[in-house]
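Listing S7. Sequence submitted for prediction.
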Amino acid sequence: MRTPDLDQLDLAILACLQADARTIAEVIGAKVGLSAAAVQRRIKRLREAGVIEKEVAVLSPAALGLDMTFVVMVEMERESLAVLDGFRAQVLADDCVQQCYYVTGAADFVLIVSCPDMAAFEAFARRMFFDNPNVRHFTTSVAMDRVKVGLTLPLR
């Protein structure tokens, strides 16, 4: 996908939406110096270009009883496309996995996993790793504190 040319107004609109996706076009327009209609046209263009991928509600894990976060480094048995694609599909289908990165280095994947407790994580590990003959090794770290969590991107 080609990155569209973004001007300062686009970046200002994106900054507003990253802070609060529910901000209405009139409020954004007042902040950036455009009419609400012009803001709406730009947002539509940014969505169509794939700059805005999705608009979601950010929920509190603790409020939902998901008190534990795990960082898991996964090493696959072999790196064939079928093995990698199979693991990707497994990760995409599991709601406990919040983020997954295919990485360089000793591990093949890094997962961020949310579970209510250790028993739930053990069940997750069984289905994701122990029951998967393509997983050679995994290492888990338990997050002690959520220092910074977010998906906002730095804008030029």
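Caption to Listing S7: primary sequence and predicted structure tokens for the chain studied. The beta strands are 68-76, 97-102, 109-115, 135-142. The chain has a mean pLDDT of 94.
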